[in-house]
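wait is this the right file?? whatever heres the structure
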């Protein structure tokens, strides 16, 4: 299991991006997901418009009220209207991340997307989650990819910054 990981990672990410409420949220959620049997992608962006190039409008929680016609709403967009994300904690964020796709917050911890499919052109050379995390990291301040085996990889500017391997998770 993890020992000093959360404090070290939160401190390093906070230093890199200049702090913000989102840091402890995504680090805590990534830790929770890493001890389960699924994976996830978490990201922090400075400005929500950075997502315009990689996340479709239908996957944007922050734009859920921009769609006018209820008849045109897709099932996932309707789900966005049911979620109250005003007071996020790491447990809630980890649960949202169990949906396939990326979970993105702004620096202040406001939920921008969950279950978002990330546009990526490189998934033929690597796994889909890795390709999505790498692509998203070109728009985000930082991206954490949690693998199904519990590894947590940190991406920034399209590259791996660090990979953290849990020891003795005993899954």
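ok assuming it is, sequence goes like this
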């Amino acid at each position: 299991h993890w020992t000093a990981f959360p404090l070290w990672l939160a401190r390093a990410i906070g230093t890199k991006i200049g702090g913000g409420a989102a840091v402890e949220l995504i680090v805590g959620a990534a830790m929770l997901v890493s001890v389960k049997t699924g994976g996830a992608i978490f990201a922090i962006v400075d400005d929500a418009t950075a997502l315009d190039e990689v996340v479709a409008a239908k996957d944007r929680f922050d734009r859920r009220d921009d769609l006018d016609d209820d008849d045109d709403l897709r099932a996932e967009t309707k789900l966005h209207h049911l979620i109250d994300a005003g007071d996020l904690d790491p447990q809630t964020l980890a649960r949202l991340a169990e949906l396939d796709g990326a979970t993105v917050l702004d620096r202040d911890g406001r939920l921008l997307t969950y279950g978002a499919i990330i546009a990526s052109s490189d998934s033929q050379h690597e796994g889909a989650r890795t390709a999505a995390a790498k692509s998203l990291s070109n728009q985000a301040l930082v991206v954490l990819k949690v693998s199904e085996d519990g590894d947590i990889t940190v991406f920034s500017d399209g590259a791996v910054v660090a990979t953290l391997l849990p020891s003795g998770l005993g899954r």
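The first strand starts at residue 40 and ends at 45. so i think its the right one actually
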